[in-house]
Design brief:
The protein is α+β, with helices and mostly antiparallel strands and 326 residues long. Helix content is 57%, strand content 12%. The chain folds into two domains: 254 residues, CorA soluble domain-like (Beta Polymerase, domain 2); 61 residues, Methane Monooxygenase Hydroxylase, Chain G, domain 1 (Up-down Bundle). It contains nine helices and seven strands, in the order ββαβααββββαααααα.
């Protein structure tokens, strides 16, 4: 647990025990931010012992399952679930991370199962600039949500760059590993869309004064800005899905064309060897001497057979070349 308390006089202190948290909650003119890394039930005791949050919300925070984004109004506080993005790595599945928020009149509690670089960056900047704690709890919630949503556009750009590289590689040398990477990109784009779309609706609710007790009118417009970012992300993700489908179709077309080339070469080779095999089969019948064609015991019979095979092969090659089949 990492907790920061901004007093009414503007000083920011870091708290470490439940007694200090209870005292900070009584400071109605101050602001309390608690960031919890929850991996088991014991990590979430402060949610019940100090804040007395609803058990169902605590269960959502403790559960390892990644829940869909939602917002619940509990009167004195609102409970918000959003999804953050991990660092993007090309060729690997991108699993969104659940982040839970409690917004009260003078506090914000954030809960997550894995460390979040945006929050760590905010904490690093607190000693130099406490701007995120300079106003109310709704302003703090906006800053935390904005930091998480800002990670979406770099992920979209990274996926776009990955698609560009895959398309170039497909045209140069297609392989089964490229197909696997394309499918991973499609899955990541779908997961990104599933994460962004419900959060867009949440930001829309936070920006239209649906919770006047906790979201002030002057802060609501900033949630509208986050909403606009998510709308843009959703639009770009739709484009990524189209690009991924186009890249997949390109891969299938290139593979199909290469297979057709191989089949054409094999068919031409089979067509060439068919008359040669026929000639060899005819000579294998051991027919007697004739005035038209030499027999197997003739001195120049074998040479005639080889010459006929060469002539037939050259004639068929010339014909195939004339028809542009090879």
């Amino acid at each position: 647990m990492i907790a920061y308390h901004r007093r009414a006089d503007g000083t920011v202190t870091q708290l470490s025990d439940d007694a200090a948290l209870r005292e900070a909650l009584t400071d109605r003119d101050g602001l309390l931010w608690i960031d919890l890394l929850i991996r088991e039930q014991s990590d979430a005791t402060v949610l019940d012992d100090v804040f007395h949050f609803h058990p169902l919300t605590i269960e959502d925070c403790v559960s390892p399952r990644v829940d869909a984004a939602k917002i619940d109004d509990h009167g004195d506080y609102i409970f918000v679930i959003v999804q953050a993005l991990p660092a993007y790595a090309a060729g690997q599945d991108m699993e969104p991370l659940e982040v839970d928020f409690y917004l009260g009149p003078n506090y914000v509690v954030s809960c997550h199962r894995e460390p979040l670089p945006p929050f760590e960056l905010i904490r690093e900047r607190l000693p130099q600039s406490g701007a995120i704690l300079s106003r109310g709890a709704d302003w703090l919630l906006h800053g935390l949500l904005d930091a998480l949503v800002d990670e979406y556009l770099p992920a979209v750009d990274a996926i776009d760059d990955t698609l560009d590289g895959l398309e170039a590689e497909i045209l140069r040398q297609p392989g089964t590993h490229l197909l696997q990477q394309l499918l991973v990109v499609k899955r990541n784009a779908m997961r990104l869309r599933r994460a962004a779309t419900p959060q867009r609706d949440i930001m829309n609710r936070l920006s239209r004064s649906e919770f006047p007790k906790l979201i002030h009118e002057e802060t609501a417009i900033y949630f509208r800005d986050i909403y606009d970012h998510l709308v843009r992300v959703e639009y770009l993700v739709e484009g990524l899905r189209d690009l991924a489908d186009g890249a997949l179709n390109t891969y299938l077309s290139v593979v199909s064309n290469r297979l057709n080339e191989v089949m054409r070469v094999l068919t031409a080779a089979a067509a060439i060897f068919l008359p040669i095999t026929l000639i060899a089969g005819i000579y294998g019948t051991n027919f007697p001497a004739s005035s038209i064609w030499p027999s197997y015991d003739s001195e120049w019979g074998f040479g005639a057979m080889i010459a006929s095979m060469i002539v037939v092969t050259l004639a068929m090659l010339a014909y195939f070349k004339y028809r542009d089949w090879i």
